[in-house]
């Protein structure tokens, strides 16, 4: 094989790979988001919107751990009731059933990241956790352990 | 004549039977719906950062509908469990998902109860999470109470998430 034919083969291969990537990447990819800092409580989206149980603070911690490990989307709920669904934290792109995220269930955190809004959902790509105060909302006296009481 | 009429009524009833059969869960803003769309992982869809098999259960997944709407599928038919195990095997393929569309002002999510690839197929209950969990951990009546990761976290930080804070003994 000549040097010219080798070069030509490389070009053809790289073109083929580029074409393959273009075919598999979604058309709407590369959405550009807004830089944002969010403060709120880490909570699972199921308990937060189902209204079937009390989903705040200490009373909800155990349940939130279960939901996060079960793969339910985890969100940060700010003081205005907005929900920001977490799709990554730093380089960790495991957004379902991630023990690292489950460990922070019901913690009050401040995070920096990128906000993407699409079809009624606020998605958050967390760059860094600027502050983690742990669990600070004390709800267990009134609500016990949700949802079963133990 | 009467038998023919009865057969006609039954046939008409079957024809008119709604395709939607999701069980209502009485969640605020819920609406029974069958979504038809392509299975994608959310990070891939939104940012073009794609993983093989939509993350194989480790990434949030959803459906891109024919009109381009992206619906995150957040919950399966198993208690405390999401739908990634149910949808990821269909990554990149079109499916029908029967469940509840929750159009909460704070967030719009879909909770799937059953799915299939084609109308001529039987519905498959969205319960794959439990199958996978039991393959890894063994049988359990309540997976969440037997989950090793959950029990590690709760043992370390307590049921309220604060070390040393324990429930009051029951009288």
From TrEMBL, chain A:
Q: What keywords were assigned to this record?
A: Signal
Signal sequence region: 1-29
| Keyword Signal (UniProt) | yes
Species of origin reads Bosea vestrisii
The protein, known as: Uncharacterized protein
């Amino acid at each position: 094989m000549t040097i010219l034919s080798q070069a030509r083969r490389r070009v053809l291969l790289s073109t083929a790979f580029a074409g393959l990537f273009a075919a598999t990447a979604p058309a709407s990819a590369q959405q550009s988001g807004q830089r944002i800092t969010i403060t709120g409580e880490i909570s699972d989206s199921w308990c937060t919107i189902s209204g079937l149980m009390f989903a705040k603070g200490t009373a909800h911690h155990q349940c939130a751990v279960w939901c996060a490990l079960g793969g339910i989307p985890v969100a940060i709920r700010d003081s205005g009731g907005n929900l920001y669904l977490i799709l990554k934290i730093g380089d960790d792109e495991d957004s379902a059933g991630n023990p690292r995220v489950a460990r922070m269930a019901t913690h009050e955190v401040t995070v920096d990241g990128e906000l993407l809004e699409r079809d009624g959902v606020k998605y958050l790509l967390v760059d860094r956790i600027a502050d983690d105060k742990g669990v600070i909302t004390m709800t267990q006296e009134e609500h016990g352990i949700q949802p079963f009481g133990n | 004549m009467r038998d023919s009429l009865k057969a006609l009524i039954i046939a008409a009833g079957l024809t008119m039977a709604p395709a939607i059969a999701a069980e209502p869960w009485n969640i605020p803003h819920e609406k029974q719906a069958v979504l038809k769309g392509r299975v994608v992982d959310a990070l891939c869809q939104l940012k073009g950062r794609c993983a093989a098999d939509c993350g194989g259960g480790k990434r949030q997944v959803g459906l891109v509908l024919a009109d381009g709407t992206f619906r995150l599928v957040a919950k399966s038919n198993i208690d405390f469990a999401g739908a990634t195990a149910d949808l990821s095997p269909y990554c990149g393929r079109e499916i029908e998902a029967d469940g509840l569309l929750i159009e909460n002002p704070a967030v719009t999510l879909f909770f799937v109860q059953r799915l299939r690839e084609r109308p001529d197929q039987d519905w498959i209950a969205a319960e794959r999470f439990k199958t996978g969990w039991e393959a890894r951990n063994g049988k359990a009546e309540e997976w969440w109470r037997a989950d090793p990761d959950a029990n590690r976290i709760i043992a370390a930080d307590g049921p309220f998430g604060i070390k040393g804070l324990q429930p009051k003994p029951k009288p």
